[in-house]
Design a protein that fits this description.
The chain is built from no helices and nine strands. The protein has 114 residues and is an all-beta fold.
């Protein structure tokens, strides 16, 4: 799609190698003052995701290409991981970020009967 940029990839469980479905992902462009949200999606049954965005979503006065990072969220809305910033290569409109992560135990402890 002309004029569109894309961040895509897969999210796998580091221990098992299995895909992690239904994980919320937000893409951001790092800026000096305020980071721009590029879009939001969820991983599918295969752990795959894709975020499409346009130049207007990140372009600033001194910016040529987006400096992308992802924030992954659990179903409960808790932040699971924040990736390192990846500079999209000059002249490219897409970058693939495949992640192997360890999910923290997000379950709440049930009260003990006493």
């Amino acid at each position: 799609m002309k004029g569109w940029y894309k961040v895509s990839g897969r999210v796998l469980d580091r221990k098992t190698g299995r895909p992690i479905p239904d994980l919320g992902i937000r893409g951001y462009d790092r800026d000096l003052i305020h980071d721009d949200c590029l879009g939001e999606t969820y991983t599918d049954a295969y752990g795959a995701y894709e975020i499409l965005f346009q130049e207007a979503d990140f372009k600033g006065l001194f910016e040529g290409q987006p400096d992308v990072y992802l924030v992954l969220y659990s179903n409960e809305g808790q932040e699971v991981i924040r990736t390192e910033v990846v500079k999209m290569p000059r002249g490219r409109r897409s970058v693939s970020l495949n992640l192997a992560i360890e999910l923290p135990d997000l379950s709440e402890e049930s009260p003990k009967a006493g």
